[in-house]
Amino acid sequence: MIRLWFKSGTPWIWLNAAAVSACLIMVIGVLGLIAARGVGHFWPSQVAQFSYQEEAGQVQTIIGEKIDTSITPAAMAKATGYKMAADEDTLVQYLIKTGNRDITGTDFRWILARNVKQQEYPPEMMVVERREWGNLYGYLVAVKENGVTIATGEQAWPVVQAKIDEALAVFEEIAHLEKKEVGAINYSLEQLRLEQKRLQLKNRWDAAAEQRTAAEKAELESEYKNHQTQLSELYQQIRRDSLVAKTAGGNEVEIPLSKVVRMYQPNTMGLFEKIRHYGIKLVEFLTDDPREANTEGGIFPAIFGTVMMVIMMSIIVTPFGVIAAVYLREYAKQGFTTRLIRIAVNNLAGVPSIVYGVFGLGFFVYILGGNIDQLFFPESAPAPVYGTPGLLWASITLALLTLPVVIVSTEEGLARIPKSIREGSLALGATKFETLWLTVLPMASPAMMTGLILAVARAAGEVAPLMLVGVVKLAPTLPLDGNYPFLHLDRKFMHLGFHIYDVGFQSPNVEAARPLVYATALLLVLVIVGLNLAAILIRNHLREKYRALEG
Fold first, then answer.
1. What is the CATH number of the domain that holds 321?
2. What pLDDT does 1 receive?
C-alpha cells in the first residue's frame, strides 16, 4: 500500500508543498523583521530619566531612550564577572540611548535594571536633533539672540520653535545657493578652463578666443561674488540665535540653532502629533541627503543612484541580449560551435559577481575609459574623465553580469513560438527579417521581459562589483543635474546595497546605525519589487496582446 502511494507521486507533491511553504514563511519572517526594526525607527520614543546607583554606590541621573533589554542567566553573568545575589536567576540590562555624544563621548550605555532606583518621564524633557553629534537630551533653559537671552522658562519653547523655523528656511536658502547657483558657476568656470586648454592644444587659442573667454569668466566671477555676499549675510543671520539646554549632569550647553534640525518633547506628544512626526521623519528619510557619516538624515542620493543604474543597465542589456539570442536561435547553424556558445553563456551566469567587477575595472575603466580620455578629453589630463569608475561603467558591468539571463530567457521564448507562424509569414511574401521583426519578436516579448525582470532583480541588489566600478560612500552631486549635458555618466554615485554595507559595517557608531540598516534594506526590497512589478505589468500586457496570435 505504501509502495503504491509512493509510486503515485503524492508524497513528492506534499514534500514540494512543504518546501515552498517553509520558504514563504522564512521570506515573510525576514521581511517582517526588517520592517518592524526599520519602520519603527522613525516613531518618537519616550525619554526616561533614571536615578541610577553605580556598583560603587554613587547615584547619578541618566537621561535617554530605552532601546533594548538583555536578559542573561545567572551562571553566564557570573562567568562574565558580574556579582549575583543568591536569589537572582537572571541579570537584566537596559540599553539606553543617552545621546549628548559631544559631552559624554558615547551615544549608548548599558545599565543594570537592579541598580535603577527611580524611573520617570518628565513632560518638559526634550530631544534636539542636530546636524552634528547626534541627539541631545535635556531641558530647555533659555533662548538667545546675538548672545542676549530673549526667553526663559515656559516662554522659551514657542520662541525657540519659531526661531528654528526661521533658521531652517535660511539653511535651505544657503543650501540652494551653494549647490545650485554657486555649483553651476563653478561648473561653468571649469568648462571655460577646459575649453581654453582644448583650444591651446589645437593651436587655435587667439586674441578673439581669449577676449571671449575673459568676458565670460568676468561675468561668472561677478555672479560668484554676489552669491558669496548673499551667503555671508545668510550665515551671519543663521548664527545669530542659539538655545541653552541643561543635560543630565546638570551642565548647561549652548547650541547654535544653525546646527539644529528639529526639537520636540516626546513625553507630551499625543497620538496624532506622533503620527505627524513619524510622517515628517519618513519623508526626510526618503528625500534628504545623508549626514553624520550616513547614520542620520535621508538616503535620496542612494535611491536615485540605484534606480538610474538599473534603468541604464536595462537599456544596455536588453538589445544585446535579444540580438545574441536571435542570432543563436534564428540565424546560427546549429552545431558544435553553437552548443559551445550556449554552454559558455550558461557558465557565465555562475561566475561570481566580484569577477565581473575586476573585469569592469580593468577593461572598461582603465583600458576603454583611458583611451576615450586620450582621444576625446585630452584637455582634462592628468585628471581622468571616463578613465575612472563611474555610473556608465557600473551600468555596463552589471549589464554584462546579467546578459546570460536575458539571452537564455529570450531563446526559450523564441523556441516556444510555433514553426507554423514563421512558415505562414514567409508564405505570405514576407522576408525572414520582416517575419522576425514583425511577428516572432513581438510574440517573444513576454519572454524578453521575463529575462529583464530576472536581470533587474539581480542587478539591483549587487554590491561587490559596484565597489570597484563607481559606487562611493557619499556622492556630493547627483549624476543628473541642470548643467549641460545634464546626465553625467562619468560621475560616481551612491547605491542602496553599498549604503547598507557602509552603514552596517563601516559606521563608527554601530548602535545608532543599526535601525537605518533595517530601514534601508526594507527600502531596497521595495525598490526591487517596484521595478519588477513595472516589468511584470508590461510583460502581462504583451502576453495578453499576443495570446490570440499564439492560439
1. 1.10.3720.10
2. 64
